[in-house]
Amino acid sequence: MNTFKFNLLNTDGDARLGRIDTPRGDIRTPAFMPVGTAGTVKALYPEQVREAGADIILGNTYHLMLRPGAERVHRLGGLHSFIGWDRPILTDSGGFQVMSLAKLRKITEHGVTFQSHIDGSRHELTPERSMEIQRLLGSTIQMQLDECVAFPHSDADAERAMQLSLRWAERSKRAFGDQPGHACFGIVQGGIVPGLRETSARGLTDIGFDGYAIGGLAVGEGQELMLKTIESTAPHLPEDRPRYLMGVGTPDDIVQSVARGVDMFDCVMPTRSGRHGQAFTRYGKFNLRNARFAEDLRPLDETSPHPALSQYSRAYLHHLVRAGELLGSMVLSWANVAYYQQLMAGIRAAIAENRFADFADEAREGWKAGDDG
Asked: In terms of C-beta density within 10 A (0-12 exposed, 13-18 middle, 19 or more buried), how is residue 206 classed?
């Protein structure tokens, strides 16, 4: 099969259970995509990510274009072969990283010119070049180039960036061309202004994409504004296409967003938190640096079938973190990725059985036992 297709299997309220068919395997939705920014989910082997239950990972156009370079990855067989991941990969457009990381960037109608944060070398990223890079990488899902406006912002700034992103969306879709088995997603912008979000969503739908992302959130606006923005966006997106909330988030963010109709998520939080001594579990978030774990022989979750959660004591993880041992980062990143995948599996099962609201309440009650200290 050489097609990309979204199948909506069940709904429970606004929560959606689905499956995306791709030539590289199915993506069960709601899905969480571990972030493999530079071709690696940090501190994990690809097989660990697979065994944790991930159907798809994310790669980053900005980082990969700078190092090792898209043309080199293409010569070496494409991103899937290069990193040893045979399942679907989504690549973002690089726009967000240019706005947040690059030095001396300049945005024009044509695109954005910037200096690399690595060595100061000058580069230009246009909608056409972003799509060319993603085609060279060979990613399954390729994102349009957009401008993510900073928060806080004025309505005028949000509208300017949204309109520019719409024009770039047309160019991105045209540059994507015909790639059987691959998909191109548009990105809704508009800051936290409901009317702009609706205009953006309708404009992207008119262009016609294989899926639609909600961008420009998780940039400091807080959960309440984020959820209100999702509520003002999702109803204007086609029901027969996947909806992807970019850069989100905590387990509670995910559950709340699924309740508002979101199908796909990505975030560096599981691995970044793992590297900083934090674990996400069904009991909430634990800071393993905390002295209260120094003699706690219980695992993170004794009922979990996953070894990272059930085979290492909290005392041992506390020791590893406090001693700065690499194994601490590795085990906790592994545990967090596994927990996120278990959460998604629970969400999917609950939607299938029309008990998502009860599942969300139970999950939230369980997280209260955690330690955010």
From this structure: exposed
